[in-house]
Amino acid sequence: MKVTVTVNGTRYEREVESRMLLVHFLREELGLTGTNIGCDTSQCGACTVHMDGKSVKSCAVLAVQADGREVTTIEGLAQDGTLHPLQAAFWEKHGLQCGYCTPGMIMAGSAFLRDHPHPTDEEIRHGLEGNICRCTGYQNIVAAMKSAAENM
Amino acid sequence: MRPAQTTYQRPTSVAEALQILAAHEGAKLLAGGHSLIPAMNQRLATPELLVDIGRLDELKGISVSGNTLVIGAATPHAQVTASPNVRAHARALAQACGMLADPQVRNWGTIGGNIAHADPASDPPTVVLAAGGKLRLQSATGQRVVDANDFFLDLFTTALQPGEILRSIELPIVVDRRSAYVKMPHPASRYAVVGVAVFLDVANGYCSHASVAIGGAVPKATRSPGAERALQGSHLDDAALAAAAAAISAEVSGMAMSDLYASAEYRTAMAGVILQQAVRAALA
Ligand SMILES: Cc1cc2nc3c(=O)[nH]c(=O)nc-3n(C[C@H](O)[C@H](O)[C@H](O)COP(=O)(O)OP(=O)(O)OC[C@H]3O[C@@H](n4cnc5c(N)ncnc54)[C@H](O)[C@@H]3O)c2cc1C
Ligand code: FES
Ligand code: FES
Question: What pTM was computed for the model?
Fold first, then answer.
């Protein structure tokens, strides 16, 4: 089926199999490999992107469901060479170790901060419930989220 | 993690979706996809044709019609939990849809898809059952309304027939009725290990009506007549809560499910504990 998806501001038209997942469309059709795949049960959140402004696990939707929609991936978050405040805060606060969960964490986190500009620690932890990190113990991720909230 | 070959259609009305369903035996409805696509990723589901109803406005939205709260089947969980009408008239449902899964899943998964799927570890079925809800189903030949008591039949099995679409979930609005949903979530998936919903009519501390349902622990959302009897006609004091807890655990014990995370014995014991928490949450 032919789909038209706007990804990071660019309109793409592609012929795809109906069974293709959005995450494979992004990685394999468009070469946007910043979006990671960390599980096969839709539980880890590594593949989180924004679709029509709302966070979504791109392994739990088909590319055909994204037809006509706008998608933002980690590659589209920086504006004119300036990192998104949450990207900068992950850097400053050491919000990552291996970095595998980070693109998904930042996409989930940036959607959360847009809707919750002044979150408590507890709200941040609930807001990132769909994202699993095997390295950091989450402490510095929460610190990065708080720091970004102050700078946004 | 790649689904098997399939085909896809996106009808522009419920009527068109019903026609497609009637014409294709291997067709399956796709709403949010957040139960179906994970199942397709595991090849537990291999539908020949997906019929996407996720964008149909006629299946979305929340309204009050007389004494009934009407929730469109394709309304995402996040909208159910944010709805002032749901918060006012069925707080337990706002709680269930607000605590299920995670924000990403709540953005795109729909309440109707959840109820039609009838996963035993789901949250909304337990609440809809305790609320005395009804399910409005539509087929090519007409509509019928099924009481929640008759809708959930077994593990992943409902009264929905081939060719039928769940249109809306309808809950009675009763003045001063209080409700709450409390669950013990699985730490990774957030699905319910044990979840209990209570709806109570309380005046001056006296409980004149109680309905109680449990999910997660058992193969389908299930009412607890024993807990209802213990609470109804009481002042919801510690003795009544203890009797209700004993009753629900006794009812669950014969049918409790077991897995690596929680044994049947554990779920049975927790049923009473979670019930007491739910009653206290409804009163708070
Ligand atoms: C990581 C993860 C964690 C989750 N945790 C929880 C949790 O804690 N608690 C919980 O309750 N749920 C949980 N879910 C499930 C989630 O709530 C799903 O959104 C929901 O169960 C299915 O809704 P959907 O719209 O995505 O349905 P889909 O996946 O599109 O469809 C599910 C099934 O219902 C059928 N269907 C869909 N809509 C209709 C309709 N209107 N009429 C008739 N049949 C229909 C489909 O054909 C399919 O068989 C989780 C999901 C994921 C991925
Ligand atoms: S890869 Fe999508 S949630 Fe793990
Ligand atoms: S930094 Fe390694 S998984 Fe999160």
Answer: 0.97
